[in-house]
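Tokens as discussed.
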């Protein structure tokens, strides 16, 4: 099962890069931008980070989705989605769907323009809201990663 081993390794590596990036953005980049530590033009500072990371995040989300579907199919794990004790499987799919929606639909088609206008008018409020949204996404991500690792090794809360 070399294919399955490689898929699992790529899956975990992509999750590490993706969620690690969310953590870096949430705990380091956005607070520095909010405080103006990267210059007075907060919007320009934010875009300097965002444009470099967004394609990396999108690529990792696609890899996670592709390898996840591959592993579920190869191991015939579809039945786990009918069992509440595998809540972490649902959490992984839900988190993936949320990020896929945000990265591929909401951010480029809706949020980008609205955020720019808001940040131009009231940068403090705009960046505070953006940071809070990232805190929520990071918290959901960390709970999901914890649950997935613990659950895949036998731990259950149900």
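Sequence:
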């Amino acid at each position: 099962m070399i294919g399955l081993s490689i898929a699992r390794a790529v899956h975990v590596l992509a999750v590490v890069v993706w969620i690690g990036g969310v953590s870096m953005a949430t705990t380091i980049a956005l607070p520095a931008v909010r405080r103006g530590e990267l210059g007075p033009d907060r919007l320009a500072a934010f875009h300097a980070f965002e444009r470099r990371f967004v394609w990396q995040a999108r690529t990792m989300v696609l890899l996670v989705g592709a390898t996840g579907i591959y592993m579920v199919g190869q191991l015939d794990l579809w039945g786990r989605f009918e069992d509440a004790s595998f809540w972490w499987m649902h959490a992984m799919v839900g988190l993936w769907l949320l990020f896929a929606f945000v990265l591929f639909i909401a951010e480029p088609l809706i949020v980008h323009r609205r955020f720019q206008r808001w940040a131009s008018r009231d940068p403090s409020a705009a960046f505070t809201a953006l940071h809070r949204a990232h805190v929520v996404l990071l918290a959901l991500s960390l709970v999901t990663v914890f649950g997935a690792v613990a659950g895949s090794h036998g731990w259950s809360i149900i």
